Amino acid sequence: MQISSIYDTSPAQWTARLDGLLHFIRQHGDRRITLQGYRALAALTPEQLALPGVSLLIATVRGQHGRQLAGLSFVSGFGKEACLVAVHPLYRGKHTGSSLLTAQLQRLGRLECSVASDNTPSLKMCFRAGLAAVALTTGPTGKPTLELRSPEHTGSTTISTQEGELLCRNPS
What is the DSSP string of 34-52? Predict the structure, then answer.
């Protein structure tokens, strides 16, 4: 598997490439990609790929007819605006998604995303890439959603207590 960045495409090539990526997401996103993330990718221009916090990576594999798309990851605003990953079913469970997220983290330096709490495969992918859960919110579909961030941006997780202080105020 090879992970590469898409950033220097001519306008003529860009439209065709973006259409192919959007088709891949519709076909292999399993209806888990948020509308906000999909729209951010659909509106993406080659000029925006040069902005800080924006990255588009693809994972390809060598196939019978040349390189074939196995997965893609798009991040905008370091993940605050959009963070999406889609992997072809043949390459799921082989760390393709977590490899894409790890590459995004290395490329951008920091990353955050939101994942519905019932989406176990995506949560595993994020945890495997080194992201940590920092909050539980309600997502756009009304489901409980975990907010995940790269470790250096999760804040302090240590609890300071005084000696003899009760950790639970209402012991039963």
Answer: -HHHHHHHHT--TTGGGST
